[in-house]
């Protein structure tokens, strides 16, 4: 387990900034017991500093997980967000879209969001922007990338795709074997 | 042939006896001194371990060999500065994190802003085109209507003309007798 290098931090923040606005500052916190990002087996964990310090007493190969897993670095050096980061993203989301009850299950099974399933789409959403997907009761289900801007989505036919799925809560079951396996 | 010659001529005889008696005397005294028995020096076999060991060859340093600079693992331009930390440099203090975040966020905001602006402009252009197309269509429709009306009128005119021609004399008659017209069309 180690802190991130500058390059890694930039890659992580660039990815987070797609979904989270300027409130990402709040994520880091300040004071003595702030939150930090730690890298262990290519996975990045969002963890309280005191806890991270305690974790140094555990050998690297025996430390499976700590804090909240944000995602992992691929072998090409890119960062991939995991569904486990959803609570953090949903709290500080830049853009949210709300889907109808009839669109919840298709989304949780891993399909993209069609125009017919969108309950509310905020104004001024650009194309290919990161969004957090919620139910109409404001329960976060996952996150994705918009396929159309708001104006274009309004004109789209009901079967047209509005949002490409990136991650959804169904992954907790579908990717159970690999989601928490480190190494 | 050679050994026989050597045997015939002893080395002392060549120099003469009268030359150095002292030397002879000293030789005699040396003969009396006890010498340790000569040690036998065994020649070592080639297969012996010590013989088999290779003598350590001298190792030359790079500078001594005078190799061309490019023939090394590290290229000429790459020189690792001394006294600098090896390996990765971590970013762990909050200030550095904040600066990185501010940089990344500004970049992202700019990207999104430009995207939205571009989308808006495209939308305006699209709207203008749509309005233009609508206007053109209404114009075309109105033209068509006009043409239709004109045709209708001409048709009416044609239909009406013979009637008119027929009626003209009637009308002329009716004009003369005004009450009759009202009677005819009622």
UniProtKB/TrEMBL annotation, chain A:
It is found in: Nucleus, Nucleolus. Residues 95-170 form the PUA domain. Keywords: Nucleus, Ribosome biogenesis, RNA-binding. Its main location: nucleus. SMART domains: PUA. Belongs to the NIP7 family. Interacts with pre-ribosome complex. This is 60S ribosome subunit biogenesis protein NIP7. It comes from Aspergillus cavernicola. The lineage of its organism: Eukaryota, Fungi, Dikarya, Ascomycota, Pezizomycotina.
From TrEMBL, chain B:
Residues 176-186 have a biased composition (Basic residues). It is found in: Nucleus, Nucleolus. Residues 1-67, 128-186 are annotated as: Disordered. Keywords: Coiled coil, mRNA transport, Nucleus, Ribosome biogenesis, Transport. InterPro entries: Loc1 (IPR037650). Residues 37-51, 128-152 have a biased composition (Basic and acidic residues). Residues 11-23 have a biased composition (Polar residues). It comes from the Eukaryota. Required for efficient assembly and nuclear export of the 60S ribosomal subunit. Component of the 66S pre-ribosomal particle. Belongs to the LOC1 family. This is 60S ribosomal subunit assembly/export protein loc1.
């Amino acid at each position: 387990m180690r802190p991130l290098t500058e390059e890694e931090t930039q890659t992580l923040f660039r990815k987070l900034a797609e979904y989270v606005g300027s409130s990402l500052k709040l994520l880091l916190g300040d004071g003595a017991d702030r939150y930090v990002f730690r890298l262990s087996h290519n996975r990045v964990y969002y963890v309280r500093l005191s806890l991270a310090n305690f974790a140094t007493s555990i050998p690297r190969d025996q430390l499976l997980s700590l804090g909240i897993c944000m995602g992992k670095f691929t072998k090409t050096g890119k960062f991939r967000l995991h569904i486990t980061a959803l609570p953090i993203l949903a709290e500080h989301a830049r853009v949210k879209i709300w889907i109808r009850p009839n669109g919840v299950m298709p989304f949780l099974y891993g399909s993209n969001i069609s125009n017919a399933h969108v309950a509310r789409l905020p104004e001024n959403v650009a194309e290919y922007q990161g969004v957090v997907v919620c139910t109409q009761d404001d329960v976060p289900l996952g996150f994705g990338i918009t396929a159309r801007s708001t104006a274009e989505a309004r004109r789209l036919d009901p079967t047209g795709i509005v949002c490409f799925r990136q991650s959804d809560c169904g992954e907790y079951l579908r990717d159970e074997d690999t989601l928490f396996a480190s190494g | 042939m050679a050994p026989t010659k050597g045997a015939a001529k002893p080395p002392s005889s060549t120099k003469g006896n009268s030359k150095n008696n002292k030397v002879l005397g000293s030789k005699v005294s040396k003969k009396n001194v006890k010498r340790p028995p000569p040690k036998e020096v065994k020649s070592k076999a080639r297969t012996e371990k010590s013989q088999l060991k290779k003598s350590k060859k001298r190792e030359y340093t790079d500078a001594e060999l005078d190799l061309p600079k490019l023939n090394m693992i590290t290229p000429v331009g790459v020189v690792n500065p001394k006294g600098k930390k090896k390996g990765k440099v971590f970013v762990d203090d909050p200030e550095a994190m904040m600066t990185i975040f501010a940089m990344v966020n500004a970049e992202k905001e700019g990207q999104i802003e430009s995207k939205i602006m571009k989308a808006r402009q495209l939308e305006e252009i699209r709207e203008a085109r749509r309005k233009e197309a609508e206007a053109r269509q209404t114009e075309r429709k109105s033209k068509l209507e006009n043409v239709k009306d004109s045709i209708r009128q001409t048709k009416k005119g044609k239909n009406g003309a013979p009637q008119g021609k027929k009626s003209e004399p009637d009308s002329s008659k009716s004009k003369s007798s005004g009450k009759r017209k009202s009677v005819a069309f009622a």
